[in-house]
Amino acid sequence: MSKLKKDFYLQQDVVMIARELLGKLLVTKFNGHITSGIITETEAYNGVVDKASHAYGNRRTKRTEIMYHRGGVAYVYLCYGIHSLFNVVTNEKDIPHAVLIRSVKPMDGIKWMQQRRDGRKISANVEGPGNVSKVLGIHYSHTGLDLCGNSIWIEDAVHVEEKDMMITPRIGVDYAGEDALLPYRFVFSQKKEK
DNA sequence: TATAAGATTTACT
DNA sequence: GTAAATCTTATAT
Predict the structure, then answer these.
(1) CA A102 to chain CA centroid, nearest Å
(2) Domain of residue A166, CATH code
(3) How confident is the model at residue A190 (pLDDT cuts 50, 70, 90)?
(4) Disulfide-capable partner of A97 in A13, A14, A92, A144 (CB 3.0 to 4.6 Å)?
(5) What is the distance between the alpha carbons of residues A29 and A2, in angstroms, rounded to a whole number?
(6) Which bases of chain B come closer than 7 Å to a protein CB?
(7) Is residue A21 part of a domain?
(8) Within 13 Å, how many C-alpha atoms sit on residue A92's CB side?
(9) Residue A14: pLDDT over 80
């Protein structure tokens, strides 16, 4: 078990980081409850040149400010008034790159996850960025947390072979025009390819 | 100050 | 498959 160091998040290529994050263990610790899961799906948001990104066109507001922080912090924001979406901020200061975590495979603390989902059962693979944040207990007020701190962090876990990786366009960003077609989504599927 | 829209999820027809 | 829920943030008066 080794917590990822700061320099992992400072790499220049956000798409590469999104790929590297597959198979890593995302761990949260709130109120003494540890929950964790293997990251099985990510999406890269390529800063100012990406129409799907909140930071497109170098838009710098109170909300996106944290994306301009140097890599290694959390960017969590509220979508549709209901869902907290969790992102990992990457690259150097003033470069608003981020990776959205879209799904995880629950590992530790499943009973806490159940509690957070009103007792409903937790599937073997939690899909959807809103659900990921929910089961891990991540709230939009957690934005800006240091991923090298002791509330949210990421550890090395399994190594993902390239044959277990699917690369597809991103989801739910139709409004981004041609940028919605970019192959910035990475899925870790352990199934044997048919 | 007021209004519009969103990196979604869930329930229902 | 379609639509409603729901509230913060950004942008316009």
Answers:
(1) 6
(2) 3.10.300.10
(3) low
(4) A14
(5) 16
(6) 6-10
(7) yes
(8) 1
(9) yes
Tell me which residue range forms the domain holding A71: 6-188
CA of residue A79 to C1' of nucleotide B10, angstroms: 15
Using one digit for the tens of pLDDT, what is the confidence trace for A64-114? 999 999 999 999 999 999 999 999 999 999 999 999 999 999 999 999 999
| Closest protein residue to C9 (Cα–C1') | A63
The whole-number Å distance from A42's CA to C7's C1' is: 26
Instruction: Measure, in angstroms, how far nucleotide C7 C1' is from residue A64 CA.
Output: 18
**Nucleotide nearest residue A174, measured CA to C1':** B7
* In-domain check, residue A116: yes
State the total domains in chain A: 1
- The residue whose two tokens read 């969790």 is A86
Record the tokens describing residue A185, joined without a space.
């989504």
Q: pLDDT tens across A100-155, in order? A: 999 999 999 999 999 999 889 999 999 999 999 999 999 999 999 999 999 999 99
What's the Å distance between residue A154 CA and nucleotide B10 C1'?
30
Provide the token pair at A173.
């960003």
What Cα–Cα distance (Å) separates residue A77 from each residue in A33, A80, A129?
A: 22, 10, 11
pLDDT digits (tens, 9 = 90+) for A31-65: 999 999 999 999 999 999 999 999 999 999 999 99
Report d(CA A125, CA A107) in Å as an integer.
10
Q: A1 in a domain, yes or no?
A: no
